[in-house]
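To the structural biology subgroup,

Please find below the input and predicted structure for DivIVA domain-containing protein, which we are adding to the shared reference set this quarter. The sequence is reproduced verbatim from the submission form. If anyone notices a discrepancy with their own records, reply to this email rather than editing the shared folder directly, so we keep one authoritative version.
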Amino acid sequence: MSDGMFRTVSGLRRGYDPDEVDEFFSHARSVYEQGPATAISGADVRQVAFDLVRGGYVTAAVDAALDRLEAAFVARHRAQFVAERGQDAWMAHLGAQARSLYGRLGRPDGDRFAPPEGRKPGYEPADVDELCHRLVAYFDTGAPLTAGEVRATTFRRRNGRNGYAEGPVDAFVARAVEVLLGVE
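Predicted structure (tokenized):
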């Protein structure tokens, strides 16, 4: 990935700040090519946030590049882990993460996550529970599911105590993506 590789939106629309994006991808490329494998993780890539500016980079293109970059860093971490400790250790590592996720999945619909505090917005429980059903099917029966599908899942908003708090759901989804990327 090189500086300026993304198209910009018109000056009337907002996109990601080109300077921030170019700086991040330049740093990530340097780390990937020369730095220690742990200097940037897949989670670090997933959590990066760029400011929106008029005439910035097309957000969908940058987000797609971030998805590919996250997968590359996860694959690199997996390869290094397997080289140092073996495939069985990697599978045990993924199994521990999957068991942690599965504990949450075993809860009944509507009760998997805490509600938002006060009047903060949350996610629609039925939408989140639907993703949980897909994860259960994946873990129990091997039903097809990819990290990209989980990452692309959207949840409708639900105000008040009848929703799921966003933070715990987002963290859960991030861990699910990490497990699925580790298997892919």
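Summary notes: Residues 3 and 132 are 38 Å apart (CA to CA). The mean pLDDT is 83.

Regards,
Lab coordination
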